Automatic annotation (TrEMBL):
<dbReference type="InterPro" id="IPR052061">
    <property type="entry name" value="PTE-AB_protein"/>
</dbReference>
<dbReference type="Pfam" id="PF03061">
    <property type="entry name" value="4HBT"/>
</dbReference>
<dbReference type="InterPro" id="IPR006683">
    <property type="entry name" value="Thioestr_dom"/>
</dbReference>
<protein>
    <recommendedName>
        <fullName>Thioesterase domain-containing protein</fullName>
    </recommendedName>
</protein>
<dbReference type="InterPro" id="IPR029069">
    <property type="entry name" value="HotDog_dom_sf"/>
</dbReference>
<feature type="domain" description="Thioesterase">
    <location>
        <begin position="163"/>
        <end position="238"/>
    </location>
</feature>
């Protein structure tokens, strides 16, 4: 059936009523005007500034990570250590809290050792300076037989990039456990007999951490001391758990460490 014969009027009407505004609308949507083009320039400049700043920051971060840490005693090292000390004094809330607690006494580490002796010790010699143990402070609570140590772990202690080596952490933990044990022993000396470590979360270099070390007074004697330690970041997250047993040897004569840390 030829529908053109039946609906001639409808075909003519549809032809006459075809919208005449379609062409102009299509042209205006596909051809941006000058005002739209000019408005994009500020946005492009903002994006360029943001990504440029990110690129500079990332480049500096990479440069810091691949460059060798400053040598202990150098001018750069002294500047870095001054900044570490400044952050410790005014930038760590836990330090302010401990200084307000009357039961905690703040001490430097290695007060018992001469400068010559410290140069031959692992943690105060090869691991000294901002690249290693840039800062170690001890807060001793004699009533609870507890130490809270605040340490700065530098980039020279890394195993994987940005992460502190597990062995370096074990060394710092061992010393803190030993501090609690030796202060308990009347002989003021002792050695590590057993050390257990459980790593719970990554420990990142160029950061401050706290070591909470406590003596087990019920199990400890004059020749054996049991202690536990927790390493936490500045947000309080548990990173490492450790326990240790320390003894006073019967057949080995050891020098007294002294009454300090």
């Amino acid at each position: 059936m030829n529908h053109s014969r039946i609906f001639p009027a409808l075909r003519q009407s549809a032809t006459r009523t075809r919208p005449s505004w379609r062409v102009p609308i299509r042209n205006s949507s596909t051809t941006p005007n000058a005002r739209t083009q000019s408005s994009r320039w500020p946005r492009h400049l903002i994006y360029a500034g943001i990504f440029g700043a990110l690129g500079v920051g990332a480049g500096k971060w990479m440069d810091d990570k691949i460059s060798a840490p400053p040598a202990p005693g150098s001018v750069v090292d002294r500047i870095e250590l001054q900044e570490v000390q400044r952050v410790f004094d005014i930038g760590l809330p836990i330090v302010q809290e401990l200084r307000r607690e009357p039961d905690y006494v703040e001490k430097d580490v290695y007060e018992n050792f001469s400068e010559d002796h410290k140069e031959h010790r692992l943690t105060s010699g090869p691991l000294a300076g901002s690249r290693g143990l840039g800062l170690q402070k001890v807060f001793w609570n004699d009533k609870e037989k507890k130490i809270v140590s605040v340490v700065f772990l530098g980039p020279g202690l890394e195993g994987w990039p940005t992460m502190v080596h597990g062995g370096a952490l074990g060394t710092v933990i061992d010393e803190n456990l030993g501090r609690v044990a030796i202060r308990h022993f009347p002989a003021r000396t002792g050695v590590t007999a057993n050390l257990n470590l459980n790593y719970r979360a990554p420990v990142y270099s160029d950061n401050f951490y706290t070591l909470h070390t406590t003596l087990d007074q019920e199990r400890s004697t004059d020749r054996k001391a049991y202690a536990k330690c927790e390493v936490r970041d500045m947000a309080g997250r548990l990173c490492v758990e450790a326990t240790g047993l320390f003894v006073v040897p019967k057949k080995l004569q050891l020098a007294k460490v002294g009454d300090h840390f």
